[in-house]
Amino acid sequence: MPTLYYAVGACSLAPHVALEWIGAPYEAVKVQYGSKELLAVNPAGAVPTLREGDGWLLTQAGAILDYLAHKHPEAGLAGGDGLRARAEAHRWSAFFTSDVHAAFWPIFMPSRYTSDTSETARQAVVEAGHKLVAKQFGILDRHLDGREYILDGARSVIDAYSFPMIRWALKLLPGGLEGYPNVQALHDRLAGDPAVQKVLAREAEG
Ligand SMILES: N[C@@H](CCC(=O)N[C@@H](CS)C(=O)NCC(=O)O)C(=O)O
């Protein structure tokens, strides 16, 4: 049985949701960033990390989601098998890893992005992060115009990938999701999903 190492409020919510959608047995282990337990399975001390029953370890959210989608084709979460459908799935996975997730770093950890320790400098970095996130959410919102899900046809692991980041934007952007009605609609669709609610409830447990 696979084990998912996750942290509350983190991007590990994406594979957590994907595992729940798949419906096969798995274990979810809550960890602290940089803890001994997490460092033992991921040298970066970061989540998500997936451990298979035979001890094989996989890190990186995009890789874990792709692995789970293809390990369980019966769940229909890969976004299609054609050459272009696979390329689209990789495209959007890279978008969330490299463009959206990375855009949040200056907001989460402004001190990493300036050697100036003043509050003014910290605030300037956070505001720059807001602009970066807004640019990416504009791209996502325009893509979602007229679509229910990010990839063609049906919900996929890429929707799961978007969910923690949409929640961060809702909480951290000065206007929340104002101005991104299609992203808001995707958020509401996913937030209303019983499997997503189950995972959020588990993550909220002490
Ligand atoms: N590139 C990695 C980034 C993983 C990552 O940074 N996860 C965050 C949570 S969203 C984390 O564990 N941060 C703690 C840390 O970096 O110390 C991935 O996509 O899986």
Describe the overall structure.
This protein is α+β, with helices and mostly antiparallel strands and 206 residues long. It folds into two domains: 3-77 and 195-204, Glutaredoxin (3-Layer(aba) Sandwich); 83-193, Glutathione S-transferase Yfyf (Class Pi), Chain A, domain 2 (Up-down Bundle). The protein contains eight helices and four strands, in the order βαβαββαααααα. A hairpin with a 5-residue loop joins strand 3 and strand 4 (57-59). It starts with a strand and ends with a helix. It binds glutathione (GSH). The site of glutathione has 11 residues, from loops.
Number of domains: 2
Q: What structural class do the secondary elements suggest?
A: alpha+beta
Catalogue the ligands: glutathione
Helix count? 8
The average pLDDT is 97
CATH T-level topology of the largest domain: Glutathione S-transferase Yfyf (Class Pi), Chain A, domain 2
Low-confidence stretches: none
CATH secondary-structure class of the largest domain: Mainly Alpha
The radius of gyration computed from the alpha-carbon positions, rounded to a whole number of angstroms, is: 17 Å
Written as H for each helix and E for each strand, in order along the chain, the element string is EHEHEEHHHHHH
InterPro entries: Glutathione-S-Trfase_C-like, Glutathione-S-Trfase_C_sf, Glutathione_S-Trfase, Glutathione_S-Trfase_N, GST_C, Thioredoxin-like_sf
EC number: 2.5.1.18
Domain GST N-terminal: 1-76
Pfam families: GST_C (PF00043), GST_N_3 (PF13417)
